Model the fold of this input.
Amino acid sequence: MYSKLLMPVFSIFVRGLVLGIILVYVIGLYYGVINNLGKNILLHVSEKTGLLDTELARILSTFLPIILLILVLPFSFKNKYLYIAFISLLSNYSLSLLLISIILLSYMIYYGYIYDIYYELELTSLNIALILAIIDALLVTIYPLSAISFKKIIREKSSNILPRDLIELNMGEVLRIIIYGDPHSIALSSDPHNSIIIVDRGNTLMYTYIDIIPSSKYGGYLIISYKDKLVYKLKCVYKEVNYRKILFETYYNDDLIGEYEANVEDYKDLILAFNNILESIIARLGIERDDIRNIQFYTEDDVFIPSTTKIYELNSNRVKAKIYAREKILELLRYYGRKEIYDLWETLVKRLEYLRESATGFLRKIDTVIERKNIVIRDWW
Amino acid sequence: MFSIIIFDGMIKHGFYLDIPDSKKTYITRYLRQGLNGEQIVVEDIVYRTGKSGKNVGQAYRIAVKYSDKLVFDEKKYVLLVNGSSEHDMGISLYILSNIFRNIDKPEIILIVMVPPRSASTYLKASFYAWFKTISLYDVMFNYKTRNSFKYILLNPDLPSQLINYLIELFNNVQNNCSLLHIRLKKFIVPVKEIFVFAELLKYRGFIEHIIKEYRYILMLLHGILDKAPTELWSIARKEKHVIEGSKYIIEKYIKNKENIDQNISELLRILLKGRKYTVSIIDPKVLFDEFLRGTGVSKIYRKIKIKDKIMILENISTHDLTSIYDFGVVDNIKNLTRYLIVTRDLAEYIERENVIIKKHGMGEIGIVDVMETPINFDCKVNNEYLPFDFQEAYYERAGIALPHLYPPEIRVGDKILKPQDLHIINPVNYYGYIDYVGKECSINTDNILNQLLSQFS
Done:
């Protein structure tokens, strides 16, 4: 149900319409048109109760709507995107006018009650004002001040889509989620984890947008929540995934370590497609991921290929991948001449022995801490 | 000075009990090793002959035979009975009637673990009959001496720590009596726990660091060998064992790291979710932050506005506490007393009565609501306190097995009650009797009880 409510048609257009109608009623109420007061409320109350001098009231009542508008305008537009700001403006303006009307009418009724003057007309006006105020407040508090719509983007061309349970993207297409309203209350997540990748974000005057693609052929569920409440759960997959067999001629610090072939989805970036091979290399060489400083890709003719090139844009199926990593051994060995290698060896072996001997004591300390934790846990029943 | 009598079915709970100024006596079915208290063996004939047929009546008769061993002359008693053991039930009845006869102005607390819902009809029937008999004892004891008898029913799966907690509570408060229905919850500021958590994290970091260092050194050694002159190789060959031995050490470290990880996640899980009767009143992340900053405990208390939190807790609704017995329905209580069991460091923030200060520990507030519960099945007072299937089981069995369900006779002063007499009255306890005596609905029980009690007025 939330998903229907947050479609721009309802959230912005219909709500804006309703708020506009309410605003018209409110203005009508203020100027005394709706309830046959004949003049605007401030003037009416001043005349009947002598609250303000009539001339002063006339001037004030003419300027009051404008002053309110000026006050409400920046408040509504601050930190908001255009459409939602409009909705906010309509609502805030109505509410502020209603507040003033309610205060004046209540005073009028109180005055009438004390001095036994007929106040039936004001009572009905007050009722109308209260009802309008409640509806207005509900429309901007309970109804989330936000809207979400979807587009499919491919190479500068975009097409609006209605969110269905399954979204199929063509090759090279990207799903754009457009968020009108506060982007911080909308959270995106994927199920299973990491099955959806965010490729782009941006802001325009009217909305923020997030571009996503599925990270593999199997796609995944895209979960959109508004303030922790589920709004959409859409399955995103690629309609047809084409694969290409790419051969990576891999170099590690300019030493050829092998040729690895992989069948990769052709919508992927080159660096993403190389990721699995990279992980296996890291595992085999026993290095850490942080040690790798740079990965560069070249064609067979040694022409540089940017890492974010898509696979389908490659001209040939052979790519040279050059991994540059920090060589810790070399760094250390650089400082030692031949003679000192013996000393280095000694030191290292001694260090190993020391680590081995301190193992028992250290492991015993760990057992003590775990025992202490067990004792503490015993109090939790 | 409590004398704590732990019956055979509650031995595993007895191990845990640690009450100052108390003496533990175990009443066992056969000689057990390694008990931390005096042991009186009341041999279960069934155990010896292997025949089945144990029942409450028989256990009582065996107890009579062991009367020379079952001698008690203290004034204050705690009895821990397992309602799933007829041995426990029978012998406890004997001991109670003994105390009634011989001790002047005793103070008795009876804590009994109810049989599970899946128990056999036979057991449920025995328990129902035993409950009825105990409730009668409740009337007798409290009529003769005010506040001399209390009894509490427990769920069958409760932890020993909770029983210890209850006994400690009643060690300090004396003014409740009869059947007590208890709801409690412990609220903790997990300072100790966060401290242990931090230590575990520290050691985890250490281990990771050491494992990394090991790997690094091994890699260096291999790298050096690669580029070294051949003379180094002969030295290396002599120290081969060091390098190969370290593989084994690394595995040990890795296993320990996984061990620490498991312990950390267990600790975290408990901190975040709490347990059935214990919860944390502060988000542990907030506490951890403060701890890392080196804030002292009293400053932390001030920061988290502990006084406000405690005030909210003091007025917490009874329904937010967890009941220790939830098989039955309580629809009528006579009195509710709320006790607070707090550790010394939090005691200064509380100004009310009925506060008990816990000697050990910190950052703990236990809220215990003790409700004196009248029972009078005839007048429909809390007649659903035992689940209905217990009563059904009793009526199924009572026709054929009356002597099994009750002691052969209960001597009250000069009057004797036989199983037939006990059978015709329905469960009624002290408040159930006092508040409803003379009313139309309790005519049945009044007839028998008025006679019995007239000798004590």
Q: What stands out?
A: Chain B has a mean pLDDT of 88. Chain B has 17 helices and 14 strands. The longest strand of chain B covers residues 178-188.
